C-alpha cells in the first residue's frame, strides 16, 4: 500500500470508487476492500495526515468532514439500525491521510 492511498489512488482518479456522498471538500465512498458488509470511507479532498495533525487553520474542513461523517452515519443507521464510526492513528493508520470509517455488520475477515 502506498503511504497515502487516498491522494495517490482515489483522489487522483487512478482507482475508481463508488461515491456515497460528496461536497466541495469531502468525499465519502464505499471502501475498495471492505472489512464490513457496509463499509464507507470519508476523506478530506486535501491532504491532512491524521486527526492529531490538524491545526487551527483546519477547523472549517474538520467541521465539513464531520458533517459528512454524520450524514453518512445517519444514512447507514436509518437503513441498518446501527453503525460504527472510527478513525485510526499512529501504527493503526495504514494510509497517512485523515479518514473516517462508517461501517455496519460483523467483520468480513
Description:
With 109 residues, the chain is an alpha+beta fold. Helix content is 27%, strand content 22%. It has a five-stranded antiparallel beta sheet with strand order 1-2-3-5-4, with helices on one face. It is globular, with a radius of gyration of 13 Å. The two termini are 18 Å apart. The relative contact order is 0.25.
Record keyword descriptors for this entry.
27% helix, 5 strands, alpha+beta, 109 residues, HIT family, subunit A, single chain, 2 helices, five-stranded antiparallel β-sheet, globular
Quick one: biggest sheet? 5 strands, antiparallel
Strand order of the largest sheet: 1-2-3-5-4
Total number of beta strands: 5
What fraction of residues sit in β-strands? Answer: 15-25%
**How many angstroms separate the termini?**
18 Å
Number of domains: 1
Low-confidence stretches: none
Q: Structural class, from secondary structure content? A: alpha+beta
Q: CATH top level?
A: Alpha Beta
The helix content is: 25-40%
What's the CATH architecture name?
2-Layer Sandwich
CATH topology description: HIT family, subunit A
| Shape type | globular
State Rg. Answer: 13 Å
What would the average pLDDT be, to the nearest integer? 95
SSE string: HEEEHEE
Q: How would you name the CATH homologous superfamily?
A: HIT-like
Amino acid at each position: 500500500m502506498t503511504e497515502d492511498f487516498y491522494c495517490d489512488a482515489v483522489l487522483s482518479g487512478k482507482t475508481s470508487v463508488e461515491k456515497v456522498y460528496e461536497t466541495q471538500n469531502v468525499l465519502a465512498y464505499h471502501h475498495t476492500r471492505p472489512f464490513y458488509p457496509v463499509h464507507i470511507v470519508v476523506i478530506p479532498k486535501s491532504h491532512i495526515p491524521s486527526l492529531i495533525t490538524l491545526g487551527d487553520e483546519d477547523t472549517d474542513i474538520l467541521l465539513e468532514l464531520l458533517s459528512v461523517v454524520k450524514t453518512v452515519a445517519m444514512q447507514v443507521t436509518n437503513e441498518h439500525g446501527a453503525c460504527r464510526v472510527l478513525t485510526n492513528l499512529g501504527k493503526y493508520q495504514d494510509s497517512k491521510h485523515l479518514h473516517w470509517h462508517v461501517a455496519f455488520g460483523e467483520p468480513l475477515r
